[in-house]
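Possible regression after last week's pipeline update?

I re-ran a chain I had predicted before the update to compare outputs. Posting the input and the new output here so someone can diff against the archived version. Not blocking, just want to make sure nothing changed silently.
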Amino acid sequence: MATISLRDVRKNYGNTEVIHGVSLDVADGEFIVIVGPSGCGKSTLLRMVAGLERITGGTIEIGGRVVNELEPRERDIAMVFQNYALYPHMSVFDNMAYGLKIAGKSKAEIRERVDKAATMLQLEPYLARKPRALSGGQRQRVAMGRALVRDPSAFLFDEPLSNLDAKLRVQMRLEIKQMQQSVGTTSLYVTHDQVEAMTLADRLVVMNAGVAEQIDTPMEVYRKPATTFVAGFIGSPAMNMLRGAANGTGFALDGGGRIAVRADELAGHDRPLLLGVRPEHLVLAGDRDPEFELSVIAVETLGADTLAHGRLAGANGTGDAFVARLPGSARVSAGDRLPLVIEPGTAHVFDAESGQRL
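New output (post-update):
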């Protein structure tokens, strides 16, 4: 096991800078998930740690050793890829043992390590099979086992579950988490799936256009997103964003209308603002005075939840697009006008120009 440190790491392709000075300290045994949309630079960052991409600037340390100029095989890391990268002509045992054979390990040690990993990953019945005789989930376990037997300082995962169906992804991410907790190996994991990110990570690195917009625990990123990008990316459905300004004890919408928001949440902000409200923090007013009404356009019934999509009702019946996440028992139809309130203390205020949290 080892620590990983990135200091102002940059990457250019020609005159185009794609990684803009990322700094990160990963503790020994920590599970870090790098999350973001396609093209944000998360896989490039991981490949630089692995040595598969040369860095343009900055420093990468693994276990206190600067590895900028070291080849991948010299960095004591093991990588699990999206496409499994198994040898089709080799058995499961031989795929898992191949790296150990190249490293010159004895047959007894190879057998011991492979058997131990196979037991952990429930692969014992499949050791004699070829990859073509395995399911997608079993192939991914073999890829994980091949990394595990090497006992590396760090695991690097590059979107390993992208090729699996939804049910199998749930099962496999639980297995990855259990494996990492069992062996305690420092891990960097790349994904575009926020559910994977939230459930696996000790801490998240939220990437946007080559910049690490926020580095924090999953719940802190959810509770206190640092920017409007993070607020919109983490959480499903995405956070509602309303443009306007503070107006007395409320929030005046640019398109007309007003939302009653606690005065202390808007105090001192006399600039154009964005008010963020998560769909799950909206509740039916019931016997309380509604803070605003939602004119429902469409309804998604999901069983445990009901998503009501619409617009805030203004003087002319139109306004900002909005979605409320209500209990599955809620009886909602298109055309309804829902009286809603925001749960106290859950609104988020951002600067409209910079997108930074205020």
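Follow-up from reviewer: compared with the archived run. The two ends are 39 Å apart (CA to CA). Marking as no regression found.
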